[in-house]
Amino acid sequence: MNNPRIVLVEDDAICATLILKTLKQYQISHCSCPEKFRELITEVDPDLIIMDIELGDGESGYELCEWYRQNHTKAQILFMSAHDDFDKITKAYDSGGNDFILKPVNINELRAKLALASNKSKEEASRKDEENSIRKMAFDAMCETGYIGRLLTLSRDVAEQHDIEKIIDAALTLTDEYNIDITIKVKCGDTFLIKTSDRKPASPIELSIMEHLNSIGRLFQFKNKLIINFMNCVILVKNMPKEDDVRSGWIRDHIAIVSEIVDSRLRALEKDTILGIKSDMLNTAKVVLQKIESSILHQNAFSEEQRHAISSVQSEIGKIIHELYLSGPDEKKLLNTITSKADFLLHLHDASLKQHAEIHSLSKELILLLNKHTH
User: Fold this and answer.
1) How far, in Å, CA of 286 to CA of 284, rounded?
2) What is the DSSP letter of 100?
3) How far is 125 from 147, CA to CA, in rounded Å?
4) How much is the pLDDT for 250?
5) Residue stretches of the chain with pLDDT short of 50
6) What single string gives the DSSP state of each residue in 34-99?
7) Which helix (DSSP H) or strand (DSSP E) does residue 196 occupy?
8) Residues 23, 108: Cα–Cα separation, whole Å
9) pLDDT value at position 361?
10) How many Cβ atoms from other residues are within 10 Å of residue 3's Cβ?
11) What's the CATH number for 5-130?
12) The pLDDT value given to residue 308
C-alpha cells in the first residue's frame, strides 16, 4: 500500500481544503455529506477514511462509521472533532473508529496518524491474506482427504469384484466427480471392453485411438488430451483443463491412481483365471494317473495268475508226454522244447511285471508332485 486511497468526510470547506492540499500526494477523495459518502465508498473502496464527527444536520460521523462497519470492514477510520472530551473519544472507538485527532488539525500529527493507520491497514490486509491462505489450504486438504477416501473405497470395491464391466463402472462413477470426459479400455485375458464417461459406445475414431495406445508409453499428454497407459487398463481424458496447471496436475495424478487400481485388479483376475486352468489340468492329470495306477494293479494281479497258469500247463504237458510212451530221446527233446518255450513266456511275464512296477512307481511320484502343486 505505497499510495493508499483516502476518503475525507468533512462539511467544513476551509478544513477540507487545507487537508486536501496537505495530502495531495495521496489518492484522496472528498465528500461533505452522508449520501455522497455512501456513493463514494462503492467507487473508491478506500484504505483510509478521515471522518468528521459533526456533519451538521442529519447523520453524525458516528452513525456513518457504524454503517460502514456493518457493510464494509477494510478501511482504517480516523475521527476528527473540535471536542476532545472522554465521552466523544469513547464513542468514536465504540462506533468502529481506529484513531482520533483534534481540530484544528495539526498537519504533522495528521501525517503521523495516517502513516500509522496505513501500516495497520497493511498488517490487517496481510493477516487476512494469511487467514484466507490457511483457510484455502485447510479446505484443499479436506477435499484431498475426501478424494483419497474415495480412491481407497474404489480400491476396496474392485478388489472384491470379478465382473469386468462393474469394475469399469466403479472407476467411471468416481471420475464423474472430476468433471472430465474420459474413455476407458480394459483387457482381461481374451476379453476387451471399452466404455465412456457418458456410458455410450466409443466413436470409431476413439476405438482406433484406443487400439494404438499401448505403444506410446505410460503417460502421454498433448493439448487437452491425456493418456494413462497400463498393461490392462488405458484411460483417455479428452478435456484436460490445460489453462489451469494445478487442477490439470491434480487430475493427472488421480486418473493415474484410478488406472493403476483397475489395472492391478484385472491382472489379479487374469492370474486367478490362469491358476484355475492350471488347477483343473493338474486335477485331471491326477485322475488319469490314479486310473493308470489302478489298471497296473489289476494287470499285476492278472499277470500273477498267468504265471501260475503257465507253470501248471508246463507240468500237465510233462505228465501227458510220459503217458504217450515216447522213446527216451523223443520224450527228452519234446520236454526240452516245451520247457524252453515256457521259460521264454515266464521271462516275458517277469519283464512285464518289472515295467509295471516302474510305471507304478513313476505314477506315485507324479501324484505326490501334483498334490503338492494343488494344495
Assistant:
1) 5
2) E
3) 32
4) 87
5) 139
6) HHHHHHHHHHH--SEEEEES--SSS--HHHHHHHHHHH---SEEEEEES---HHHHHHHHHTT-SE
7) strand 191-196
8) 11
9) 74
10) 10
11) 3.40.50.2300
12) 72
The predicted pLDDT at position 68 comes to 92
Distance between CA atoms of 269 and 275, rounded to whole angstroms?
10
User: How far apart, in whole angstroms, are the C-alpha atoms of residue 252 and residue 333?
Assistant: 99
Residue 223 in grid coordinates: 493439448
What's the pLDDT at 82? Answer: 86
pLDDT value of position 129: 77
Find the distance separating the first CA and the last CA of the chain, reported in whole Å: 78
Contact at 8 Å (CB) between 97 and 63?
A: no
pLDDT in tens, 254-299: 888 998 999 999 999 888 877 666 666 666 666 766 776 676 666 6
What CA–CA distances, in Å, run from 133 to 137, 140, 199, 244, 344?
A: 6, 10, 39, 18, 103
Which pLDDT belongs to residue 9? 93
Number of alpha helices (DSSP H) and beta strands (DSSP E) in the chain: 9, 10
Domain covering 142-272 in this structure, CATH number = 3.30.450.40
Evaluated on CA atoms 285, 286, 289, 291, the torsion sign reads: negative
Report the alpha-carbon distance of residue 66 to residue 60 in Å, rounded: 10
Give the C-alpha distances (Å, rounded to integers) separating 127 from 7, 48, 75.
23, 17, 14
The residue with cell 479446505 is 139
Q: What is the amino acid identity at position 369?
A: L
- Predicted pLDDT of residue 328: 67
Other beta carbons within 10 angstroms of residue 282's beta carbon come to 16
Q: Scanning the structure block, which residue is given the C-alpha cell 481407497? A: 152
For the chain, how big is the Rg over CA atoms in Å? 50
- Of 88, 67, 65, nearest to 78 by C-alpha is 65
The owner of cell 501334483 is: 370
Three-state DSSP state, 33: coil
Grid cell listed for 270: 487374469
